[in-house]
Design a protein that fits this description.
Blueprint: H1 2-19, H2 29-42, E1 51-52, E2 57-60, E3 62-65, E4 68-80, E5 87-90, E6 96-100, E7 109-118, E8 124-133, H3 144-152, E9 164-178, E10 183-189, E11 198-203, E12 216-221, E13 223-226, E14 229-232, E15 237-242, H4 282-290, E16 302-316, E17 321-327, E18 336-341, E19 354-359, E20 361-364, E21 367-370, E22 375-380, H5 393-400, E23 413-427, E24 432-439, E25 445-451, E26 464-469, E27 471-474, E28 477-480, E29 485-490, H6 503-510, E30 523-537, E31 542-549, E32 557-562, E33 575-580, E34 582-586, E35 592-596, E36 601-603
Parallel strand pairs: 1-8, 11-14, 18-21, 25-28, 32-35
Antiparallel strand pairs: 2-6, 3-4, 4-7, 5-6, 7-8, 9-10, 9-12, 10-11, 12-15, 13-14, 16-17, 16-19, 17-18, 19-22, 20-21, 23-24, 23-26, 24-25, 26-29, 27-28, 30-31, 30-33, 31-32, 33-36, 34-35
Amino acid sequence: MKKFISVMLCLVMALSWLVGCTEDVPETNDLVNAKEYLINMYQTGDKDEPMAMLMDKNVLSVVTVDGVKYNVEWTVTVTEGASDSVKVVASDEANHVKIDVPDLPDTDILFTATATVKDAEGNTESASFRYKIAGLNISAGPSAEEILDMAYALEQGASLDQQYTLTGVITSVDTPYDAGYKNVTVTIVIGDFDDKPIKCYRLTGNGADNLAVGDTITVTGMLTNYKGTIEFDAGCVLNTVVKGEGNENPSEESDVSVPEGEVSNDETSKEPENNPSTQKTPAQIIDEAYALAENTSLNYTATLTGKVISVDDAYSEEFKNITVTIQVEGKADKPIKCYRLKGQDVDRIAKGDTITVTGTLKNHYGTVEFDLGCTMVNRIAGGNAPTTQLTDPAQIMNFAYSLQAGEKMEYDVTLEGVVTKVSSPYDPAYKNISVYIAVKGSDKELLLYRMKGDEADKLVKDDTITVTGRIINYNGTIEMEAGCTMRKRVSGGGVVQTAPSDPKEIVKQAFELAPGDSLPYKATLTGTITEINTEYSEQYGNITVTIVVEGCEDNPLKCYRMKGEGAADLKVGDVITVSGTIKNYQHSSGDTEVEFDSGCTFVK
């Protein structure tokens, strides 16, 4: 657009000179430029097709070209639907007016919004934009509220019997756009139903690569209850997108100045969330972050690329995140922590990788970090990796034991071994188990963490198994990470151990566990809450308490990140029944604590 306008200006000047009538040509080029800016700002998609509008829209009432302000007057004409259903009203934003539209009307509404730019002499230029507000069209099927009610009534694993379409506002981008598979995962809220969010899993369609929090989208797909999360299942399709305020991203440049009221030249002004600060170098961004006062943040979204120098908190299978520290080239003295980093392949991050991270930079009590919600958008494997893939078990295990904390191998390996210990019993909810094996062909043991596969529920000590996965040094423990798969099992003749019927015997066995070990069965115990260790978390829906089983007052059990109905209301003195894996958890300090592990549940 910048080149186009420049060429047009040259043509106008040349023609004026040739015909010798310069005085008769109105000097309206800046007026035209202002109109062109509005077209770039508000016209998306095919101009012959109406654009979807799903909520009130703030539009500019003033633009500035070369330091000169031009007023913009907006009018609307409804061509389908009630004539007074759409209005131009005052806006809370300076230098804007608001196009006020009805929320979820009964039927479709078509209207044209016209922007007329005026100069001081009364000259005008106009641009028109066609919009469509999709109605509920009740006769075509159930309402949005009814669809939500049906979806939230589903049992785990069940789906509705046909595809439905819903329109909502994006509240989170759960997994960033994957250019390989051309999909993205987001969560939306429909209308005022904040208590019934819908995840759109692996959403595809035109515009999926540019979605941001605040955008309003229409999605069609099959609604399902996936392990308690109500979501549009993989294969759902994006139909329409209305960019949220501040998320507009014109595809071409314009010669006009920045419109007044849109983005200030003041360095403290906030940039759009999906448009990171591309005008600053990485060094400038880091210096600004390190200049922040304690517990303040930069007011724009930043993107940095750096090498992983430490894995501070290993990947959490439960929360799908990891905490690492990166070092940007040229800024070795100013490392950046990436707190609870999410994104595709974050479970594979290892020390020495080079990653690109987008998010909000913050000074968190003196530590400069990407805040919670940061996303990895690219990863280049690096670190400690052999030049050729190892296949010999002894070589694989020797290399695995050379890994530093946080480092992992760069490829999957397959090993055979004999089960020496069941670290965590089979979990029927997640269909996995954790065991140690003595690797055949090596003198070393390997932990198989949350291993899946047929007959995983039957595994006991002395079984011989073949397993495939990736090896990591997790805080000093050499293990095949979560997601490893058992390919084959040969029974060693052992029997799956079941829980004793006497609660006191369960507690006794729990307190005899070696550091880091778990009982080889799922346990259920009833006890009285003696302490609330960590208050209920609204974000994660869990609480940590300590209970005492009757007759075992000297052996209290912590219930770590426990979930269940009414968890927010628990108090000291309540009697609850807890189910889960009991473990002798060993802290990094060496201290141990017998507890129901994360994922335990209760009934009151």
